[in-house]
Amino acid sequence: SDDLVGIAFLVNEIGEEEKAISWEGDPPGGHHRNGILKFMPFVLRGSSITLVIKNVGGINENKFTWPIKGR
Questions:
Q1: Residues near 14 by Cβ (< 8 Å), separated by ≥ 6?
Q2: What is the pLDDT at residue 71?
Q3: Euclidean distance between CA atoms 54 and 50, whole angstroms
Q4: Looking at 1-71, which runs of residues are DSSP E strands?
Q5: Pair 21, 36: CB distance under 8 Å
Q6: Which tops the pLDDT comparison, 3 or 17?
Q7: Which residues contact 44 (CB under 8 A, 6 or more apart)?
Q8: Of 32 and 70, which is predicted with more confidence?
Q9: pLDDT tens figures, 5-56
Q10: DSSP-assigned states of every residue in 31-49
Q11: Helix, strand, or coil here: 9?
Q12: Which pLDDT score is estimated for 16?
């Protein structure tokens, strides 16, 4: 039942953070939700990006990191 917009943000290795601005997908509830979190673009482009989701399922912080292609 978590509000993903309120608990998710992106961070790059430069230290910029962008909070989620919208969620388009499954409503709260259930174990697996499918959808798209939207964010504003970073001012500076780094070589990787990390999605951080706080306090879900008893886990303080989940992190998922991807390289940015073309660097």
A1: 42, 44, 46
A2: 52
A3: 13
A4: 8-12, 17-25, 35-39, 48-56, 59-67
A5: no
A6: 17
A7: 12, 14, 16
A8: 32
A9: 989 999 998 889 999 999 998 887 777 888 999 999 988 878 899 999 998 8
A10: S---EEEEEPPPSS--SEE
A11: strand
A12: 92
CB 16, CB 36: distance < 8 Å = no
> Which of helix, strand or coil describes residue 13?
coil
Element containing residue 4 per DSSP (H, E): helix 4-7
Q: How large is the C-alpha radius of gyration of the chain?
A: 13
Q: Of 30, 31, 1, 35, whose CA–CA distance to 20 is shortest?
A: 35
Q: What pLDDT does residue 21 have?
A: 96
